[in-house]
Amino acid sequence: MGSSFVSFFTPLTDRLWAAYFTSREAEREICNAALERMRDESRNFEHIVANKPYKNPEHRKAVEQSSFVLLSKDVKPVTELAGVWNFRIRRDARKLIDLADQRDAAGVLAVIAQLEPRLK
């Protein structure tokens, strides 16, 4: 009787474990994409804060406009992560998007410094 009971629920437990690990993998991919974008764009934000000269008008546009847009686009999925433990990550991601919309490079760098260790 006991072994048939266990074998009856085995497919269910297998599906539950598969769903759990699949969702964890999807969250990890979202966090890694956001982390990679933050690392790439942080150099541009440092460039803005340091008030360094630009090579040409296209370089200025890429640094001052595109960096904020790309960062917002890649961090947006982080604000939709599920789970109780992710509330600080979601809060900081929302704050980062708000600062990127305001074009505040110094604020963005500060939030990246807070958010980066949590996404690792």
Structural overview:
By secondary structure, the chain is mostly helical. It has one domain. 82% of the residues lie in helices and 0% in strands. The chain contains four helices and no strands. The chain has helices at 2-50, 57-75, 87-102, 105-119. Helix 1 (2-50) runs antiparallel to helix 2 (57-75), helix 1 (2-50) packs antiparallel against helix 4 (105-119) and helix 3 runs antiparallel to helix 4. It is elongated, with a radius of gyration of 20 Å. It starts with a helix and ends with a helix. The mean pLDDT is 86.
Which term fits the overall shape? elongated
The tally of strands reads 0
Helix content: over 70%
Strand content: under 5%
- Whole-number mean pLDDT: 86
Q: How far do the termini sit from each other?
A: 46 Å
Order of helices and strands: HHHH
